[in-house]
Known about the structure:
Distance between the termini of chain A: 35 Å
Strand order of the largest sheet of chain A: 15-12-14-13-17-18-16
Number of strands of chain A: 18
CATH architecture of the domain at 153-267 in chain A: 2-Layer Sandwich
CATH topology of the domain at 153-267 in chain A: Uridine Diphospho-n-acetylenolpyruvylglucosamine Reductase, domain 3
Radius of gyration of chain A: 23 Å
Number of helices of chain A: 18
Oligomer: homodimer
Strand content of chain A: 15-25%
Helix content of chain A: 25-40%
Shape of chain A: globular
Largest interface: A-B, 85 and 85 residues
Amino acid sequence: MARGERRWNGWGFEGESVSLPATAVRWLEARVGRGAPLSAVPETTVTVPPPRPLPPFSSAVASDAATRLRHACGQSFLDLLALRSGDVAAFPDAVLFPTSAEAIVADLGRAAEAGVAVVVRGGGTSVVGGVSLQRSDRPSVVLSLDRLRGLVALDPVSRLATFRAGTTGPEVEAALAGEKLRLGHEPQSFELSTVGGWVATRSAGQRSTGVGKIEELVAGVELAGAGGVWRLPPQPASAAGPELRRLVVGSEGRLGVITAVTLRVRPLPQHENGVTVLFPTWEEGMAACRAILQGGLPVEVVRLSDEEETSFGQSLLELSMPARVVSRWLLSRRRFRRACALLLGWAGSAEEVAEAESRCATVWRAHSGLGVGRSGWRRWRAERFRHPYLRDHLLEAGWGVDTLETAATWSGLAALYASVRRALAAAGEALGVPVAVLCHLSHAYRDGASLYFTFLWPLEPGREREQWQQCKGAATRAILEARGTLSHHHGVGCLHAPYLEREVGRQGLAVLRATAAALDPAGCLNRGVLLADGEPEGRE
Amino acid sequence: MARGERRWNGWGFEGESVSLPATAVRWLEARVGRGAPLSAVPETTVTVPPPRPLPPFSSAVASDAATRLRHACGQSFLDLLALRSGDVAAFPDAVLFPTSAEAIVADLGRAAEAGVAVVVRGGGTSVVGGVSLQRSDRPSVVLSLDRLRGLVALDPVSRLATFRAGTTGPEVEAALAGEKLRLGHEPQSFELSTVGGWVATRSAGQRSTGVGKIEELVAGVELAGAGGVWRLPPQPASAAGPELRRLVVGSEGRLGVITAVTLRVRPLPQHENGVTVLFPTWEEGMAACRAILQGGLPVEVVRLSDEEETSFGQSLLELSMPARVVSRWLLSRRRFRRACALLLGWAGSAEEVAEAESRCATVWRAHSGLGVGRSGWRRWRAERFRHPYLRDHLLEAGWGVDTLETAATWSGLAALYASVRRALAAAGEALGVPVAVLCHLSHAYRDGASLYFTFLWPLEPGREREQWQQCKGAATRAILEARGTLSHHHGVGCLHAPYLEREVGRQGLAVLRATAAALDPAGCLNRGVLLADGEPEGRE
């Protein structure tokens, strides 16, 4: 890969980073003050214990300390705390690199016989503990899909493309672009995450309002387990019992290892465009989004920032002087004192894009919206995959940060929004630190939308973990009480697993456990992920 | 109900029927000759054995012979043979009429304790043995949802409406129309079938190309089992594990009794319109349908008849003399000698409908299509729920008839089409009778479409069942070999159950069995439906 190695203790690639402009530092200092920088130990100081004995595997195996360390954690706040401190709870005893579904079947069979725990890993970007190793008496291996990559088959007539599970976002789009096709699934982790990971975690891309969540893009799937390869070939629709492909989507490695996925693709758009629209209030912005979705207007990206996120976003911009003057003037007008910025994006032929924008403009004007140009769209296009790098920078600068995402019906969104903000404020009060909460509405549907919260607080040395736990716990309970879903696109992992029953009920949990037991009777796969297994929450 | 009682031994309501015009009789006689009329015994001659002892139930119970007979069968070909001959394999020992989910929980608990088999029944229109009683040593009851009807809640902001499971199609639309909303789910059984049945069988309405299959309309669902009521409230989207609502859709009563469903509704269209387009060949028609769907054109109804169905459809029309002249002239032109008729329908504002038609016209013209007016659309609108009555008439006139529906990707449709026709022709040859096969493509998607086959043959006295079995078996195997799905919208029932493993694999069957065991541990619910239970195929 031309971009250099993955960073061992933070987001993305070595040598790439994003830092806060001075205006954003001042914004944060004014809101929550500033905490203690979270230092990071050098890799050489991390003690990786010798690997425990393992049975022979058919795939290539790596058991050197550097590889084991690089496959011990994901990208949750707790993972970052562990990696930066060097106090990593558990390491895999080896990392397997299978190159076929059949090799995975063989290796899972051996793991089952020997009682070895298996953690399945695609891009390793889970922020909810989906790939974090858990302390256990059992030996464990990480099964990496890194060598199971590439396009397997393309059916241009049906617009279906089959990829191996380890294929990353850029690889998917590069393989399709030559055929003038695209998938359009672009989660923030796009550059790192994989087809298999998208399906396992039931993810959503930033264009999901237009192209759909991953479950709508999956036409067929192949899952390897100790008992063999389960192939569900592509089908446009069926009534032959429940849609079992949908049981695989979101199964987070508990039902088997996703080895290949047939995805619904579409023509590369000739054109795309976007605009920023300011609304005087969050409520008016939400009403406009709802009207656009329920009106069936073709829109690919919908992202409405609340007042706080709009204000923070403004502080992140390093604007040219004239732009700054205009922007300040606009936001100082009484009408936009509490402005909320909506980003809308369209793709298609130039005519389709122009027509869609014009139809949306009619709606936003009816809801007091004011179009303020395309610079926000261009900036979003250029920088959207770089935001996660900011998290490492914030930790280094003294701020804790994490994100939460949920979804609810339109009629429930206002209460959900208020409830999460109230819970985070209360958690901050109990901790004795101010908490800043930013939110945007995105991934909109006819019947509801997702809310994505970012919360930031000043780090207190030695209490970072407790601070996070209090905030995360309070917000998660508030989400469930307000009938939001536990996650709209990050997944369950081990961080949300203890809460899953509150969402899906006793019966839902029983069904998931029965299904996992049917396909993974030895119970080797991704213990503690999706389903709490009486094992510790997170990495106690 | 103003329309009179349901017919005890055939489709629909007493006093309503549809008969073949003389032109259609001639068409069929020319194609396959004519068989022996299948007579029907009077109801009074059917021997209903005395009911076996049952535990006390909390719901209202009927155990009179007439009620038990009316709840013994669905509407499959085998059901009609049984009812018309009076040789009904099995009767429920009683019919329960619960009025709440809680009553169902209580009654299922008693059934489980006492080992009573329970058959769940909505509108009773299954054509695949989904509600047919099976001969068994166990006592059995039918659990009718007839008294669990009506709108429970309406959320106009989120456009969600919650209905009790026994609500029929006309009742759903009547409840919504007052709020200027509609569901738009209109299977051919619309007048009789219920919300719960639609969800249990994973059905599709005739407008599904526009409004989606039932699984896309279900936002929330409530399922009663012996262990309690499982509520999955409405959510626009989630990543909190696999979508368990999709496991309930298509579960055919094996996982519990669907008691209420929250459905995604939409505004009543101000306007709708449709047109018939003739194509010189089936291939050109299919290509046009694909281009319309893959072009993302907004279309609500897509139904392309093949050459045989177009020809038969023409014979069904009792045209005015001028129309007949025009029609004959058109079909006699060399270009349309093998014409295939496509019905397209749109709904929305008058402008939207006009624009959609104009965009579709550009596509059909590029594929050699010729728009031939709106009379076909008007006729379809007026008569589409009446076609099933024709089946009873055909049996009475000496023809056997059944339908098969499947779906495949666009690249696989031509082979699937040829394969099913070939299999039915071969089955007819082996039986020594000609078989007419009509087909239409409908319910179209970006990646594929459904094919709906109607097959007709001359009935031979005493061999009706064998004739049907040979044809149905051959066609079903051909569908699976050509990678079509076992069913696009009729479901699995007990007629398709023995074939399900070929479609979903050993693992798929294991998952479904494990799920059923988790929610119905006593194994009382809908034995033999969806999952073959070592019980006889159909009604041996």
